[in-house]
Design goal:
By secondary structure, the chain is α+β, with helices and mostly antiparallel strands. The protein is 38% helix and 15% strand. The protein has one domain: 2-Layer Sandwich (Zincin-like). The protein contains five helices and five strands, in the order ααβββαααββ. A hairpin with a 4-residue loop joins β2 and β3.
């Protein structure tokens, strides 16, 4: 693959800046959790300007901040994938284990907040590049159109 991972798919959804409502974002997060076997996790909202979302292992909860609703649909989805990757990786920080899971879930290395995280996601993408070469047509969870995506992924930006 040339260029940044997922670049053609991000272009396809660039115009999706209509924000989610809280119930849509919560339902999407629950769906991503369930699709990854985390059926005993829950999603909660809170008012917080420090972060967009957080993963809390003590009570198996993904916390979404209301400021997340100001983001584009693709950014909301990327944030959800980021937190689900934390839930799957266990109580680790942004290490290579987490990054490989994040990339497999479809997190985009060019949308991260921190430069170190971007580099880590790129390293993870490079280390699992062989897995990322198999594509199929699938319906996107965000725009509901069909795109060529990584075989295990079902959302734009992957």
């Amino acid at each position: 693959m040339k260029g940044k991972l997922g670049e053609p798919y991000q272009q396809a959804c660039k115009s999706l800046y209509v924000p989610f409502c809280p119930s849509q974002a919560r339902d999407l997060c629950l769906r991503v959790l369930r699709e990854n076997g985390l059926t005993d996790w829950q999603v909660m909202w809170e008012i917080n300007t420090e972060y967009l979302a957080a993963c809390v292992f003590d009570n198996k909860t993904i916390i979404l901040s209301l400021i997340l609703l100001d983001e584009s649909k693709s950014s909301v989805l990327d944030t959800i994938r980021h937190e689900v990757a934390h839930a799957l990786a266990g109580p680790t920080d942004h290490d290579l284990t987490w990054a490989k899971i994040a990339i497999r879930l479809g997190c985009c290395e060019n949308r991260g907040t921190y430069q170190a995280m971007i580099a880590l996601l790129q390293e993870a993408a490079n280390s699992i590049r062989e897995e990322l070469t198999y594509f199929e047509m699938a319906e996107c969870l965000v725009c509901e159109q069909r795109h060529l995506v990584i075989a295990s992924a079902k959302v734009c930006g992957e």
